Amino acid sequence: MALLTMTDTDDLQPATRKSRDYRIPLLLLSALVILCDRLSKNWIVHHVRPGSWIVVIPGVFRLSHVFNTGAAFSLMETWPPHAVRLGLIAFSVFAVLVVLVLLWSAGRALTLTSVALALILGGALGNLYDRIRFHHVVDFLAVDIHHFHWPDFNVADSCIVIGACLLLLEIFSPIPHDPAANSQSHPS
Question: What average pLDDT score do residues 107-134 get?
């Protein structure tokens, strides 16, 4: 019968230790995105008249109050309102369900992917709430760079874009080289 040394038991511990599950904290991050989105939109609705704005950085950034009945960046705004709204709600519900399933699967670990999915989920739910309740999304962040005007957006849109960028970073980041894996697959 062999005796286990201290280093032998240390090697056994990681296999028996349960790793932390990050799904609940990631869902809380999504809830935080929704809360920030709702609070910011409520502030705009109560402090800026529709069609008006408050200049924050002259010629660069202002807070506006715009009703977006179309898709991202006011796409499809000229389509029949009822068709656009129902189509966007259906697409958003489908997207939320897909992202939720992906987050539930990826959320056991804290990675760029899981954080990205949490941000996208929160942003999608924030805008979905507006579409269902108000029939439009309140956009209020307006950016102008020289003569270029970026379409107005909101906190939910920002989180969706940040989440998408994090996913791209994860997708295009180089895979770390593990020398131990090569030595095991190619015996000397």
Answer: 96
Q: Which residues are registered as beta bridge partners of 62?
A: 55, 142
Report the candidate in 117, 139, 115 with the shortest Cα–Cα distance to residue 40: 139
Residue 77 is predicted with a pLDDT of: 66
User: Is 8 among the domain residues?
Assistant: no
The total of other beta-carbon atoms located within 10 Å of residue 135's CB is 14
Active-site annotation holder among 37, 130, 152, 157:
157
With respect to residue 174, please indicate whether it lies within any of the assigned structural domains.
no
Count of structural domains, the chain: 1
- Give the global pTM: 0.80
11 classed as catalytic: no
Tell me the residue range of the domain where 131 lies: 30-169
Position 156 in a domain = yes
**Residue 71: pLDDT band by 50, 70, 90 thresholds?**
confident
140 part of a folded domain: yes
Angle, CA of 44, 136 and 96, to the nearest 5°: 105
Region of poorest pLDDT, from 20-24, 69-73, 112-116, 151-155: 69-73
Q: Which one of the listed residues 8, 139, 152, 178 is annotated catalytic?
A: 139
